[in-house]
Write a structure and sequence with these properties.
- The protein has 10 helices and 8 strands.
- The chain has helices spanning 5-9, 31-40, 58-74, 85-91, 105-112, 126-134, 160-168, 185-190, 199-202, 206-219, and strands at 18-22, 48-51, 78-82, 95-98, 117-121, 139-142, 173-176, 194-197.
- It is 40% helix and 16% strand.
- It is globular.
- It has a single domain (5-219), classed as Aldolase class I (TIM Barrel).
- The structure holds ligand LCLJCK34, ligand 3NM and magnesium ion (MG).
Length: 220
């Protein structure tokens, strides 16, 4: 999940914001085919995919992860596990995403190793983001920028937070929460390195949605 922060340093327009797809809670049935469609839409694969399951035991989660992990590998998409460092280790995921109550990024690093991508939820907080950076996070996630039907949030950052973060720090920032092709442009312009998206992709035709996001990102 690297970015071209270099471009920002050279003063070139920052146009390479990337898509980070967050799974729905149910990834059974035809979800693997849907993921394949999403990752092949629009001429450019999403850079990262997060398996976000809740209340599923680890054995079952590992079984559900297998085919999705293969699809991500075939499309050079990082496979990130939400919440669960031990599941990430067990299945050899590319990384883990940790919320504020999901564990210590430093411990995750010890368990998963140097190459793992470790992301941390930072809500609308500069302080949490700086803490996450000091703890070795590979990205910090701010949200929810817009009302989300996937997850309730009491935090509501403004796009300026992305501008502030990316003006000072090299660690990539992720924008999340209610993001759609119609409302993403201010986040791209503010310097989001990744748009993390769930509902806007999986609630309809995933390929059309991904293509629409990529069009907006390129235009922004
Ligand atoms: C990229 C990204 N950002 C934020 C979250 C939210 O994590 P968390 O606050 O732990 O909430 P849950 O997703 O676990 O319900 C995320 N998953 N991914
Ligand atoms: C998982 C998650 N975390 C958020 C945060 O604010 O930290 S918002 C969110 C939901 C993302 O899904 P959608 O694109 O459907 O809103
Ligand atoms: Mg969590």
């Amino acid at each position: 999940m690297s970015t071209n922060r270099q471009a920002r340093d050279t003063g070139l327009p920052m146009t390479d914001c990337q898509l980070y797809l967050i799974s729905p809670l149910d990834v059974s049935g035809n979800f693997p085919e849907r993921l394949e469609r999403a990752l092949t839409a629009g001429g450019r694969a999403a850079t990262a995919f997060q398996l976000r399951l809740k209340g599923v035991d680890q054995h079952e989660a590992a079984g559900l992860a297998g085919p999705l992990q293969e699809i991500c590998a075939a499309h050079e998409t990082a496979f990130i596990v939400n919440d669960d460092v031990s599941l990430a280790k067990r299945i050899g995921a590319d990384g883990v995403h940790l919320g504020q109550g999901d564990g210590d990024p430093k411990e995750a690093r010890e368990i998963l190793g140097r190459e793992a991508q470790i992301g941390v939820t930072c809500h609308a907080s500069r302080h949490l983001a700086m803490e996450a950076g000091e703890a070795g996070a590979d990205y910090v996630a701010f949200g929810a920028f817009y009302p989300s039907t996937t997850k309730e949030s009491e935090h509501c950052p403004e796009p300026e937070l992305l501008e502030w973060w990316s003006g000072i720090f090299e660690i990539p920032c992720v924008a999340i929460g209610g993001i759609t092709p119609q409302n993403c442009t201010p986040l791209v312009s503010a310097g989001a390195d990744f748009l993390a998206v769930s509902g806007a992709v999986w609630s309809g035709d995933e390929a059309e949605a991904v293509s629409a996001f990529l069009e907006q990102i390129r235009a922004g």
